Amino acid sequence: EIAQCLVGSEMCIRDSGNAFETIYFWPGIQVAFQQVYRVLKNGGTFLICNESNGKNTKDEKWTDIIHGMTIYTSEQIEKELENAGFSKIEVDQNQKDWLCLVCKKDD
């Protein structure tokens, strides 16, 4: 189903999308966010949650041992969401530096 969405099936237009602990492994978040934006309905919501905010040097151990893993900062994610066309981007971070971003595709 995801492959069909990426090649442009109108059947894949969504009201919402989410990414829990997955964008670490997306080969390029700019292109991926553009694709999420493309398949969301106008007014749709996209949610991203990560257990790392990219600012804790202890997290580097994960990128050292897991091939292809990239930990992004909230600023990097927010910038790429804006570049993809998303608006109303809200960033929240808890005491453990876990990160949650919510954004909208305009109507």
Explain how this protein is built.
This protein is α+β, with helices and mostly antiparallel strands. The protein is built from 4 helices and 4 strands; from the N terminus they run H-E-H-E-H-H-E-E. The chain has helices spanning 2-6, 29-39, 60-65, 74-84; strands at residues 14-20, 40-50, 87-93, 99-104. The chain has a 4-stranded mixed β-sheet. Helix 2 crosses helix 4 (74-84). The radius of gyration is 14 Å and the shape is globular. It starts with a helix and ends with a strand. The model is unreliable at 1-11 (pLDDT under 50).
How confident is the prediction overall: mean pLDDT?
A: 82
Backbone CA Rg? 14 Å
Shape: globular
Amino-to-carboxy terminus distance:
25 Å
How do the helices and strands follow one another from N- to C-terminus?
A: HEHEHHEE
Largest beta-sheet characterization: 4 strands, mixed
Helix fraction bin? 25-40%
Structure class: alpha+beta
User: What is the spatial order of strands in the main beta sheet?
Assistant: 1-2-4-3
Low-confidence stretches: 1-11
Number of helices: 4
Percent of residues in beta strands: 25-35%
